[in-house]
Every structure is written in C-alpha cells, then in structure tokens.
Amino acid sequence: MNDPSLELLAGGLERLRESFAALPDARLAPPGMARAAEALNEAARRMGDNFPYFHPLYAGQMLKPPHPVAQAAYALAMSLNPNNHALDGGRASSRMEVEAVREIAGMFGWAEFLGHLTSGGTFANLEALWVAGLMAPGKKIVASEQAHYTHSRISAVLQLPFAVVGTDARGRMEVSALESALAAGDVGTVVATLGTTAVGAVDPLEEILKLRSRYDFRVHVDAAYGGYFRLAGNLGAEASRAFARIGEVDSIVVDPHKHGLQPYGCGCVLFRDPAMGRWYKHDSPYTYFTSSELHLGEISLECSRAGASAVALWTTQRVLPLVPGGEFAQGLEQGRAAALQLHRIIAEDARFVAGPRPDLDIVVWAARARTLAESSRRAQQLFDHAAQDGLHLALAHLPARFFPEAEWTDPDWADARAGSTLTCLRSVLMKPEHLAWVEEIGDRIRRAAVDTD
Question: What is the mean pLDDT of residues 22-43?
Fold first, then answer.
C-alpha cells in the first residue's frame, strides 16, 4: 500500500525546489551517505519494537497518528529547517504560524488575542502560569486533584504557592471546595481543566466563572487534551455549557499534537488580552534585526522553535478547517460516540464496574471484585490478557469513589472512602476509526475477562 504522505511530499518538494531554482548549484554530497540506508533500515527495525499507535486496536494512551498532510508538510519544511524564533530564521513559517494560531483562537471566539505555538502543553502551561504569577505576585495557583501534575510542578519551578481542590465522583472540580479555597483571599489563578488526562472530565467552567464575579482571580483553562471538542456537536449538556463559556477566560492552552492531528511536539498558548505581551519584552544584541515586524521570539519564552510544526499545522487546517460540523469536527464526534458505546458495553457486563460516563472520548472501568486489592489485581490481568489478544489498553490509578456501583467489602472502605484508590482500566478512543472498531474492542475485552476468570 502506498504511503499517502510520501506521495504528497514528493509533489511538495518539487514545487519547493522551483522556488530556489535560480540559485547556483552549491550542493555537496552529504557525509556518510554510503552507510545511510543501512542505518535507516536498522532504525526502522528498532522502531518496530513499539505498540501499533496508529491502529484502532491501540486504545490505551493519548496517541493519535498525524494526518498524512501534516507528515508531508513537516518533512517538506524540514528540507529548509526554519526556526520560528524570528522572521530571519523562519519568514514564511512564522507567518504561517500566526495564521494557524489565529484560526485556533477563532475556535474559542477570540479575534483579538496574544498567542503562539510551543513545544507542547507543558511549556504552554508554563507560560500561562508565568504570566498569571506576574499578574498576581505571590498569590496561589489552584487546580483540581485530577488536573495534570504539570501545574503543581510548574508552580514549584515558578516559586508560586499551589493548592489542590477536590473533585466530585465524576472527576470534575468541586465548586463548593473551590469556593472554600477562594474565601481566604489568597488565590490568584484558578486552573480549570476541560478534558482531564485520566478520565477526560470537563470542569464546571460556568460555575467557576460565576465565582470570579464574587472573588478576584484569573481563570486559566488547560484544554491541552480537550480544547478541540469546542467544535463537537454531540457533547453532554454540562460539557457543552463549559465549552460555550471558554471565550470568557484569561488564557487557554490546547495541544495540536493530540486531537489536532499534528506530530509531536506542538502546543499552543493563548491570552485573551494582547497586552500580556509586555511581560515578554526583552533586549538582545544578538537576535534578528533585518525586519521591523514583531517576531514570535518577542512573545514567547522559548527561543528556537521548529518552524516545521507551524507549516504542518497550517497545512492541516487548510485541508480540515476548524469549524463546527466540518470533517475535522466529525472526527471528534466519532471518538465521543465510540466512548459512549464502549461505556455502555462495559456497564452491561456484570464482570466490570463502569466509571463516570465519558465527557469526551475516554472510558474508565474497574474489574468487579470484593476488595480494592482484588479489583486492582484483576485489572492488571485484564490488561495483560487483552494485550496478548492484540488489544492495547491502559491502566490508571483512580479514586474508588469514581465507581459508586461497586460493592467493596474492604473493612476500611467506609472510613477511607475519600482517599481509597485502585488500579483500573482506561481506554482513549481518540481515533475516528474507533467508532467502527468499538464492538471488536468490546469483544476482546470480554475475551480477556474470560481468561482472567
């Protein structure tokens, strides 16, 4: 079978070479080419020692293959290897980044904003919390206990106080617990997660924004995983209300290298107020000065950044615009539909205990057992047996209260309910193909359960 990305790349490279055809030939034979094919074949052999991340039977972690046009555009740009730190290093790719980021911001309803691409969600969140700390010096960052661990780590790096807010049984920030934290008056920023890593939970942004009208704090939305679901038309009512209000927050992070069909690493940070650019201002005697235009290095903490990421993202968005009802949005909807279907399959099987109904496209479930330890042991066995059958899931350590229908008989369960955890199964159905494969996935999960019994 022909690789569509290679076919696209061949045509793109030919067109790119035409742009520089007037230059005198100065090419030298690259060193080591006599050994290159052998080394590449060995690399391919080594890369075969991987899970099949591209296949719908890989339904474990948040891994989604880049679109063929993204792969081709990235490789095309790499023939020049532009650096989007400045216009001198990435003239075309910097402008493509501006255009691509403008479309992402438009997805959230922002026409005026400050934003750029980053190497991933971690660095994007770092920039957002760095600005948050400058806007509210010494004040606390708070996030839910199900928020990504990067927020506590980043706060430590920035030497900002950090606190955790509890969640409900669906993994969403508990609004009453947040209000208790706000009452002390020392909170500068609330991190709302729209798509938690573990279960894909969507924090109640609508309620958080209501509290902002009574307390003085910034709202940062970590939508690294879930941001693109702003376009999906089949979300539940609560998640829909949260995404409908996302344009009212102060900053947003979204990762194009997750649902945006991009290669790693490609994150994006956005600020609603363009004036936040003042915190990035710097003077450097060795940066680029051949253009008077504002360059991306002046609004980013990172310096050298791969221009190829911007080219790949821009090209993909030309093929698949970020609009509700479009082909891109339909792919998100298919993943959500697959998750709901798998959740139903799990809930109807007496050998399992279904976790929270999916807000997005992540499904979690526990193995039914009398004790937490026994359930955790069976989950590991299910994971192993499914992998032997070609289905690759993931394991997660989650609060036992996420599984209220379980009938644990642990003697300390009643006393330790809030803090008890167990190992459970987790499946991320983020590929559109998962919808056509969900029944097969369910069959393999059931077969794994038979082997476990």
Answer: 91
Q: Specify the pairing of strand 114-118 against strand 267-271.
A: antiparallel
- 206-222 pLDDT, tens per residue? 999 999 999 999 999 99
Question: What does each C-alpha distance from 438 to 50, 187, 344, 362, 432 come to in angstroms?
Answer: 22, 43, 11, 13, 11
Sign of the torsion formed by the C-alpha atoms of 71, 77, 79 and 83: negative
257, 316 in Cβ contact below 8 A? Answer: no
Could you report the per-residue pLDDT of 373-399, keeping only the tens digit for each?
999 999 999 999 999 999 999 999 999
Mean model confidence pLDDT for the chain:
92
Give the CA radius of gyration of the chain: 24
Of 257, 184, 175, 176, nearest in space to 215 by CA: 184
Do residues 367 and 391 touch, judged by C-beta distance below 8 A?
A: no
Q: d(Cα 151, Cα 162) in Å, to the nearest integer?
A: 8
- With b meaning 16 or more CB within 10 Å and e meaning fewer, what string describes 332-352? bbbbbbbbbbbbebbeebebb
Asked whether the beta carbons of 382 and 449 are under 8 A apart, the reply is yes
The residue length of the chain stands at 453
Place of tokens 């972690």: 61
Q: What is the identity of the amino acid at 215?
A: Y
Distances (CA, A) of 150 to 13, 147, 385: 39, 8, 32
Residues 205, 246: contact at Cβ < 8 Å?
yes
Amino acid code (one letter) for 435: L
* Cβ–Cβ < 8 Å for 93, 304: no
Q: How many CB atoms lie within 10 A of CB 447?
A: 15
Q: Of 416, 412, 425, which is closest to residue 378 (Cα–Cα)? A: 425
Sequence-ordered alpha helix ranges (H) in 214-255: 237-244
Residue 420, both tokens: 């008890």
How far apart, in whole angstroms, are the C-alpha atoms of residue 214 and residue 212?
A: 5
Which residue ranges form the domains of the chain, and what is each CATH number? 78-319 (3.40.640.10), 327-452 (3.90.1150.170)
SS3 118: strand
Nearest to 287 by CA among 452, 86, 2: 86
pTM beyond 0.70? yes
Query: By the 8 A CB rule, do 376 and 444 touch?
Result: no
Give the CA dihedral 225, 229, 235, 236, nearest 10 degrees: 50
